[in-house]
Amino acid sequence: MVDSDNFVSSFKQQLSMDSDPPFRQTYKTLFKDTNTIENLVIAVEECELPLIDLNRLSHRETAEKRESCKAEIATASQEWGFFQVINHGISRDLLEKMRQEQVKVFKQPFHNKTKEDKFPAGSYRWGTPTATCLRQLSWSEAFHIPMTDIHAGGSGSFNTTLSSTMEQFATTVAGLAQKLAEILEEKLGHKSTFFRENCLPSTCYLRMNRYPPCPIPVEVFGLMPHTDSDFLTILHQDQVGGLQLVKDGKWIAVKPNPEALIINIGDLFQAWSNDVYKSVEHRVMTNPSVERFSTAYFFCPSYDTVIHQNCTAKPSLYRKFSFIEFRQQVQEDVQKFGHKVGLPRFLLRSH
What we know:
This protein is an alpha+beta fold. The chain has nine helices and 15 strands. The chain has helices at residues 2-17, 23-26, 63-79, 92-106, 110-113, 161-186, 194-198, 267-272, 323-337, and strands spanning 45-47, 51-53, 82-86, 124-126, 141-146, 205-211, 221-226, 232-237, 243-247, 250-254, 261-265, 282-285, 292-299, 306-307, 321-322. The strands form three sheets. It has an eight-stranded mixed β-sheet with strand order 2-3-11-8-13-6-5-4. Strands 1-10-9-12-7 form a five-stranded mixed β-sheet, with no helix packed on it. The chain has a two-stranded antiparallel ribbon with strand order 14-15. Helix 4 packs across helix 6 (161-186).
């Protein structure tokens, strides 16, 4: 009995000191027989996403160059659902500072990260609580924070350099998101104040991700295959790699570019554009020896914003729905099926 008590005490002490979430202990029932798990990883081709130099949008450039840049953004959003941008206006110093602060907060002991007196309630997430098999488990941890909560983190380490760095990053990236959304709207032949009125800094989210080394990378994703439930996502990632997306019916690996930010179309933009722009399935693969960090900015509307297409002459493919209705449906499906269904739920008819 004494040995058992010592073991439990030692185990608890290890958890309190370790920065990694206790994946193996918490999901031990999913690891009973990993030999029977179908191999999830096959060799995929690595490629570079369409690369767009945003300097060409400058008023110092010719109208022809500006229009050419806008056309490339729209084409990539139609054909890939993903692209990368350079000369995006976010300084290298700020990106590096964001990464440094992110590493610091994730390196805290696991039990510190779970304390809601240090961080906004519900912001720290790890693993997949609804997972019933290894295919549904994401080997990652994240702080998913509404922009309104950046200064609401209590008295802990959140309200220090990390908070101000996050705010700097988000404020700068918000301007880029607005610019790209308006360009995509313009290329549909439509101009309005929709994004400025509905996608405000207070309605958007920042998510800091860490993907710890995984001892069984063949069986477990860093992040399950999914599409994003927003208009646009702007991603800053390190050079470890692991991001993959579906192109022409097959998975491809995204080659990291240290100078670029990655942009991808979300579900709301696909519905709003009547399927002109594509919200593409993507995932993150695990690494057996190297951790990966990324920061994502989710360009979202207010919950009561109604999504409906009025940018194309074609009949709408989707019924009108609010953002909160979409989110609630996603949550219900994840609870019921273990994965997101997404836009097909809102089709007016089968296609």
